[in-house]
Each structure stands twice: as C-alpha cells, then as structure tokens.
Amino acid sequence: MTINPDDSLIEVKLTDGTQEVILSTTNGKAVRFSEKEVREMGRTAAGVRGIRLEKNDYVIGMVTVLRGASLLVVSERGYGKRNNIQDYRITRRGGKGVIAMKTTDKIGKLIDIKCVYENEDLMLITTKGLVIRLPIKGIPTIGRNTQGVRLIRLAEEDRIGDVARVVEENGNEQ
Fold it and tell me: CATH number, domain at 132?
C-alpha cells in the first residue's frame, strides 16, 4: 500500500466482504458505510477516501459493526459514552459524517472508538501511567449529539493514552 508521507496506517480489520465500517475523527465525526463501497485495487494503490476531513482533523479509528454491540467513544480528557449503532445511518463512503460526540475544551478531542458488548470490560491507560478497568455496562448508552460522562478523573496535564477492550476467554473478539 502506498502511504503518503503525512499519513499513517492506524487500523486494519479482517472482513468477509459484507460488513459495515465506521470511521471516526478526532473532532467527533463518524461515517458508517458498507465495505462493498470500497473497490478492489492493486497492492501499491493508495486506496479510496473513507471520510472527508475538515481542516485540522484526522481519523482516530475504525470499527467493523458487530451484531448486538454498541459503539463506544472515548475522549482524551476521560469522557465517554456508548451509542446504538443504529443511530449512525448507513451512507456512502467519503462523506463528512455525523456527530459521534460533541468535543469541547472540557471534553477534549476523541481518542478512540470501539464496538463493545455489555458483558465486557474496558481498560483506560493515561499518559501518566494510570490504568483503570471498568465494566462496559456502567457506561450509559446516550445520544450521539452529547458530550458523554466522565469515565476517569484526570489531573489537568494528564490525558487518555489508549483504550482497550477486555475480551472474554471464549474469544469474543472484534
């Protein structure tokens, strides 16, 4: 794959050709489309546009839609929420997307999105080295056009560094 010098490859998923994809940006936008919208290309091709980015925005993650799951969004300042995936209408790839989370100075920019199940746990890791584990069922499912709830109280200079699903031993993995 050809990657432009100012771009990075951030996510790869193995799919069966029939799944739906959600891409999200740091400014809180998300687009949902069928992977059938992405045409096959040669090995060295740069690919096609998944989401149209605004100035100073970039893609922070991609998920494939899982049956019975909800979409979790987490901001750098420790806020998050779950949304019903049905709240994201299926569109064509390359659109501007819809609001996944309202981003403000208090909330911060989006840092990650995950497809999660209610019986799983979530690990939050901060840039200062704090790690917490919390149950997904404790994170409310609320509307897209909201700021979410505080998942972790952070010091002023601390931020969320990474987010990980804790998967059951039976292999319920995305």
Answer: 2.120.10.90
Counted domains in the chain: 1
Report pTM.
0.85
DSSP per residue, 18-66? S-EEEEEETTSEEEEEEGGGS----TT-----SSPPPTT--EEEEEE--
What span, in angstroms and rounded, lies between the C-alpha atoms of 162 and 117?
19
Q: How confident is the model at residue 171 (pLDDT cuts 50, 70, 90)?
A: low
Kindly state the tokens that stand for 47.
Answer: 């690919």
Instruction: Tell me whether residue 44 is in a domain.
Output: yes
Residue 3 domain-assigned (yes or no) = no
Task: Point out which residues pair with 82 in neighbouring strands.
Answer: 72, 141
Distance CA 65, CA 31 (A): 12
The CA-atom distances, in angstroms, between 81 and each of 23, 34, 111, 145 are 17, 24, 13, 11
Cα–Cα distance, 134 to 30 (Å, whole number): 25
Q: What is the spatial distance between Cα 40 and Cα 61, in angstroms, rounded to a whole number?
A: 21
User: How would you label 71-84 residue by residue, b for 16+ Cβ within 10 Å and e otherwise?
Assistant: bbbbbbbbbbbbbe
